[in-house]
Write a structure and sequence with these properties.
Radius of gyration: 27 Å
Strand content: 35-45%
Strand order of the largest sheet: 6-7-3-2-1-4-5-8
Structural class: mainly beta
Order of helices and strands: EEEEEEEEHEHEEE
Helix content: under 10%
Number of helices: 2
Largest sheet: 8 strands, antiparallel
Length: 195
């Protein structure tokens, strides 16, 4: 079973100089911008394949290399009618400002992948000391000076470490540099009472 990756955002999108309410759905190859309003609009009048939008959470969104339909669809019922269009962008970029794809303004691209460790795992970055009894007394004595109190060492000490190398690799990829960095989050051990 594959995890759900579909996400939805609502906002106003500029099409041929007009602001139109829409829903942006990010879903891989099925990414879609659905625009809808009562008044007629023509996607073909938009003379660019880039669309700029402002989402309800105040972020700017830029849709690049969009496939636009030649005309808007329409729906009619007893309660009224509206026009709609489905637009299919190839690239969606979120940020504090819109991005003009014709201008060389990108200086760095960063992203986070949930499963990056499967492809680029650093076996030596983290570990557990195999003989913690050999080192625990010196480590705890040093820490006792820092916290200004006595720390009791139990019968089963463990020492886990980070080797200190944040950069796993860096390589030139022609149009820039690709690097894999280690992110460290502080681990807080919560005491638990068993009884």
């Amino acid at each position: 079973m594959q995890a759900e990756t579909r996400k939805h955002w609502f906002g106003e999108f500029d099409l041929a100089g007009e602001s139109i309410f829409g829903e942006l759905t990010a879903s891989g190859l099925d990414t879609n911008l659905y625009l809808q309003r009562e008044k007629y609009f023509s996607p073909a009048a938009h003379n660019s394949r880039t669309i700029y939008g402002s989402l309800q959470d105040k972020r700017a969104v830029t849709l690049i290399d969009c496939n636009l339909p030649p005309t808007a669809g329409s729906s009619h019922s007893k309660k009224g009618s509206y026009r709609f269009a489905n637009i299919f962008p190839h690239y969606v970029i979120f940020g504090d400002a819109h991005l003009n794809p014709e201008e060389p303004v990108v200086s760095r691209i960063s992203w986070y992948l949930d499963d990056i460790d499967l492809a680029f795992y650093d076996f030596d970055a983290f570990g557990t000391a195999l003989n913690p009894e050999k080192f625990i007394f010196d480590i705890v004595a040093d820490h006792e000076k820092f916290v200004d109190r006595k720390i009791i060492i139990g019968p089963h000490p463990e020492i886990q470490y980070f080797a200190g190398r944040f950069e796993v690799f860096t390589c030139d990829i022609g149009f820039g540099t690709l690097s894999r960095m280690v992110l460290i989050r502080a681990l807080v051990v919560e005491p638990r009472v068993f009884g």
